[in-house]
Amino acid sequence: MKRIKIGLIQQSNSENVKDNLRKLHDNISALAEHGAELVILQELHNSLYFCQVENTDNFDLAEPIPGPSTDFFGNLAKKYGIVLVTSLFEKRAAGLYHNTAVVFEKDGSIVGIYRKNHIPDDPAYYEKFYFTPGDLGFHPIQTSIGKLGVQICWDQWYPEGARLMALQGAELLIYPTAIGYESSDTPEEQARQREAWITVQRGHAVANGIPVIAVNRVGWESDPSGQTNGIQFWGSSFVAGPQGEIIAQGPNDREINMLVDIDLERSENVRRWWPFFRDRRVDEFEGLTKRFID
Description:
- The chain has helices at residues 17-33, 68-80, 159-167, 187-208, 266-273, 276-279; strands spanning 3-10, 38-40, 83-93, 96-104, 110-115, 121-122, 125-126, 141-143, 146-150, 172-177, 180-182, 212-216, 218-221, 231-234, 238-240, 246-249, 256-263.
- It is an alpha+beta fold.
């Protein structure tokens, strides 16, 4: 039986990057000491979620890959002997930036990267100002503990990316995330949004017969412009099994380190019971490449 222990770090952030990194180090260390083989961090974990405003000064937060942050996290992966999934603001060239997941092997080396493909542009989530859409496609990253289908936040609403990862042998779907409540929405609307977020990802698990891991930030972050009341990030990081069952879920209002044991062989049995890949009508899917069918 192939089982792995996965660590999820649901963290609140401050404007002090060094403090955030120190906290991440402590949390990674704690999970590794309890047996985590794979540790996953939330989206843009080094800083506050700066995309609430369009401000060119925020580009100073970006780094090249490899660079200082990959050195820092690579050293931690090596020190603790873990596979580590991170999410960084990548400076690829002057005026060219990406929201990029970097995966480190147990020896500290960069084993693969994924650049966020779907970029939102909504009130308080002005990501198109900062990030160029990814150009690496949807390809899982092979590691010593399995093949990881890593995407980022807004990608989690799109079944196509999840399917492409699964069709290439991904054993886990992983989504570093930064999503929360808009303060002007009613409590009922906020609850609907959070439940929709959970439900769509559980659907990816069911449709592809593999576990899904979503790691979200938590806590309130102010809007520097003062135009809104900021974002209350809803946490609720979770692991869903290959039938969409919730294996573990974090709270929506506080930080937590989660250690979750996953049986990767169970996906094989689920796919035997529900052979969705066998029954796909791939000869009828041409329309999926169109923006809209009139």
